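Posting here for the record, re: NSS.
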Amino acid sequence: MCPASHINDLLKEPVLDLDVEVRGWVHRTRSSGKIVFDVLRDATGIIQVTIKKGNLPDMEFESAQMSHIESSVIVRGRMFKDDRAPGGYEIRASSFTLVGTSAPYPITEYQSEELLLDNRHLWIRSREQTAIMKVKASLMKGARDWLNSNEFYEVTPPIFTQNACEGGVTLFKLKYFDDQAFLSQSAQMYLEALIFSLEKVYAITPSFRAEKSRTTRHLTEFWHLELEEAWTDSKLNMEIQENLVSAMVAKAVEERSEELKLLGRDVADLKEIVPPFKRVTYAQMIDRLKQKEFEIEWGADLGAAEERAVTEDEKVPTFVTNFPRECKAFYMKEDPDDPKTVKCADLLAPEGYGEIIGGSERETDLAKLLERLEANNIPTEAYQWYLDLRKFGSVPHSGFGLGVERVVRWVCKLEHIRDAVPFPRTVARVYP
Ligand code: NSS
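Prediction output follows.
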């Protein structure tokens, strides 16, 4: 018996003189008495299969007639060229095995968004969702390849924590035996501790934010790629980010151009994502927004509408640097050249997709850190270990956090971030 092949391998190198075998799921089916036309899908692609009475045992033909959408099947037969078939070939079956029957499939062509979300465990089989997951896997592979070849160590920070890295408002609290803990919003503080042994570290972990806002770019659980590096200032930090993001996008282009096309993304746009990215200061951004008739003054944070307005015509990402101290977290280093601002950068994706990375040089001055904690009304007990890092051989260092689903949303041109993750967690949903 021939071993089973993956559909795309057969379409790339058709085998015409031998029987082939494919295993997969019925994607579409129609039947006209003596002949069943199926389109089968596996993880790699789709292929048309014709099952004709008389070419295989009757019982197998009856199985084919009974196979509804999403039944799992094994088909053996010969490949023939057929220009009308997807991929240009079809398999004429000499054997058909129904492996798993399928109940009437609840998802048909036109469905409400709610029904698709309720049936997410089934909807992830769709070609669009499958394409997104493949692009995401390639983006993450591109990231790991770049990080590993640039000698960053992958580390494993905890998820249970007692520290609010990004402020208390969006913490998920939980009972931790007789104590209280939170789900991590960011691994940053632990990565800062780890640079003293490893210098260059990164982690890819879930982060949790109890964001009440129902927006197209907020999840309550997202995948966070965070990096921290010793002896690195804000300028070098941005160079690392633009190289990393470019390597991620290049890997997706290299491996997933078909999927990107299916998602409506022109790969030519992505080929333009190469360093250097644009750089503007927060103050310049405020001026630009004023020119665009926004009522905004120095000191206000930038929201989705502001980010969109200044990047919708851009082709490459833009760093926005030097935010006012009050807009940003306590750990960011004051800029000695402009002390009302901090040495930070948000990276905004082009085409209006908004922030994909938040990063900064870290404050190393213990007195300033204590002052900032106090100004933000943050009790210091839980931060003693973090403050220790400034007492035992402190060094200049910087880092950032990249929201993986934010990058997927931009690269795949998705309207909503929930489609960048197979099982989205939002204010409104933790099922399935
Ligand atoms: O809050 S951040 O801007 N920054 C931090 O958490 C730093 N402590 C990271 C660091 O320096 N190690 O979040 C970083 C990124 C942000 O730019 C988004 O891309 C993403 O994390 N992010 C989110 N993605 C999806 N949903 C939500 N709610 C979300 N919040 C942040």
